[in-house]
Amino acid sequence: MRSHANPELAGPMQAYMRDQFAFLGIKSPARTALVRQFLQENGVPENGELDKTVRVLWVQPEREFQYAALTLLGKTSKTADASRIELVEELITTKSWWDTVDELAGHAVGELFTRFPELIPVHTQRWMASDSMWLQRTALLFQLRYKKRTDAALLFELIRQCADSKEFFIRKAIGWALREYSKTDEAAVRRFVAETALPPLSIREALKYVDRRKPQ
Questions:
Q1: Could you tell me which PANTHER family the record lists for this protein (predicted)?
Q2: Which of 1, 166, 118 is nearest to 68 (CA)?
């Protein structure tokens, strides 16, 4: 990947991420092609080698390596055992920013919690009780793709636990989670928003989809 670095693109990509990380300057299609080529030639690392490879990628300074690590995790998400949550939690709390955390929440955690629902109460409550904004955001967002499988009671309870948060990323996550669920159960979301003291940002985000669908 470093041999395909493009410094002219790296600067704008770094700026877009508010200078949180260095970049090689490889856009998503090119990066995807490079990872695909590598996997075709070498295969997906197995068992402990996968965790080791992901960690090696994660400590690299350039952000594209973390994206490559997420791709590797995705290749094995349907076969990983429950212990994968330990690695995923480590990644959520390391080099944390919305781009990696949201991918991990909606895919890696969402898939693990679907296959191993016994993990949900233990981890969501511990994450909400932690000082980590990113773990809290993950607890709010892991059901993004669940649709009718969403545990609405759990979602609403987790939101209540952090409804008074001053963190932008938490307020945004509350609205995002509710907006996605409103596509499945509009009435439940409207009722919850009406009955719950939520930040204005969260309310706007929560009702954005259903309000846009209302007849003018």
A1: ARMADILLO-TYPE FOLD, DNA ALKYLATION REPAIR PROTEIN
A2: 1
Pairwise CA distance, residues 75 & 45, whole Å = 10
Coil vs helix vs strand at 63 = helix
Question: Which of helix, strand or coil describes residue 140?
Answer: helix
Structure tokens at 140: 């709010």
Dihedrals phi, psi of 123, to nearest 5 degrees = -80, -40
Per residue in 66-93, pLDDT tens? 999 999 999 999 999 999 999 999 999 9
Beta bridge partners of 22: 62
49: DSSP letter = H
Question: Do residues 17 and 97 lie in contact, with contact meaning Cβ atoms separated by under 8 Å?
Answer: yes
The per-residue DSSP string of 71-121 comes to HHHHHTTTT--TTHHHHHHHHHTSS--HHHHHHIIIIIIHHHHHH-TTHHH
Other CB atoms within a 10 A radius of the CB of residue 93 amount to 15
* Domains, the chain, ordered by start: 1-76 (1.20.1660.10), 89-216 (1.25.10.90)
Scan for tokens 């990066």, then name that residue.
Answer: 31
* Predicted confidence (pLDDT) per residue in 123-168, tens digit: 999 999 999 999 999 999 999 999 999 999 999 999 999 999 999 9
Sign for the pseudo-dihedral over CA of 61, 63, 65, 70: positive
